[in-house]
Design a protein that fits this description.
Blueprint lengths: L2 E4 L2 E9 L3 E5 L11 H8 L3 E5 L16 H14 L5 E6 L1 H12 L4 E7 L13 H12 L3 H12 L8 H13 L4 H12 L14 E6 L8 H9 L4 E5 L6 H4 L1 H14 L2
Parallel strand pairs: 3-4, 3-5, 5-6, 6-7, 7-8
Antiparallel strand pairs: 1-2, 2-4
Helix pairs in contact: 1-10, 2-3, 4-5
Length: 267
């Protein structure tokens, strides 16, 4: 993947497809590879799809100490600047959805449509990962056993039904082998997520907004979707029955079609 100077750092990124730009912002511990071809391929039919790795991930600049959702949103805006893009459709999942919220609040003129998947806004009605799931993930990460950490992450991010799919697990292992994310980076991202709260400001958003969430999400419970949709004027809410946190792994075609239709309606 090429690298580009984005503000004070460099970010690795990839562009593919044709049409108006779609900036896809990945979540905590994720890389650009985690978007996967079954989800990206249909999006490329309608969009110039831009994926990238956050600071500290892949070939992007190292993460120096702590970070914040606001800082990561500034990185996203700087990437658009570096690529000469005035405005784009913006998709963010999980932590990436938090970044997309801050990006849209700071630079509303740059966001044509906003899609927020499996994410969180803070405030009343919102809920972060349960202490039980968080403890299980933290213990697995701190164990020093990579396979244990990967299996725990897989099971927390996928619905129980999909967790039996050996093909998906093998793909996760292949991505980790190609582009692992360091534990200190994941922990810094987790701290940034825990400090995130846009709940009192979401009413300021005026761009067309789509909220997507799976009912079997263990990382960020589905109630977060209703909380966000109730705060963003005119937001469209789509609940995917039985899908886990990585809903776009389990239902890639349906997820891509929702985004394509959302952008088409508001073209």
């Amino acid at each position: 993947m090429p690298r580009v100077r984005a503000g004070e750092i460099e970010l690795d990124y990839e562009r593919s497809g044709s049409g108006p730009p779609l900036l896809a912002i990945m979540g905590m511990s994720g890389t650009s590879l985690h978007w996967r071809e079954p989800f990206l391929a249909p999006l490329r039919e309608d969009f110039d799809v831009i994926v990238y790795d956050h600071r500290g991930v892949g070939d992007s600049s190292p993460l120096q100490g702590a970070t914040s959702i606001v800082e990561l949103a500034q990185d996203a805006a700087a990437l658009l600047d570096a690529l000469g893009i005035d405005s784009a459709h913006v998709l963010g999942i999980s932590m990436g959805g938090m970044i997309a919220q801050e990006l849209a609040l700071a630079h509303p003129e740059r966001v044509r449509t906003l899609t927020l998947g499996c994410t969180y806004s803070g405030g009343e009605g919102s809920s972060l990962t349960s202490p039980q799931v968080l403890q299980r993930l933290t213990e697995a990460m701190m164990s020093g056993e990579q396979m244990l950490a990967l299996r725990a992450a897989f099971e927390a991010n996928i619905s129980p039904a999909a967790a039996t799919d050996g093909r998906l697990y093998r793909e996760l292992l292949a991505i980790a082998a190609q582009r692992a994310v360091a534990v200190p980076v994941i922990m810094a991202q987790m701290q940034a997520c825990m400090a995130h709260d846009t709940s009192s400001r979401l009413a300021q958003l005026t761009m067309p907004t789509l909220v997507i969430h799976g009912t079997a999400d263990e990382m960020l419970p589905v109630q977060n979707a209703s909380a966000i949709a109730s705060r963003v004027p005119g937001a469209q809410l789509e609940i995917l029955d039985g899908a886990g946190h990585l809903f776009f792994w389990e239902q890639p075609e349906r997820s891509a079609e929702l985004i394509r239709a959302h952008a088409a309606v508001h073209a």
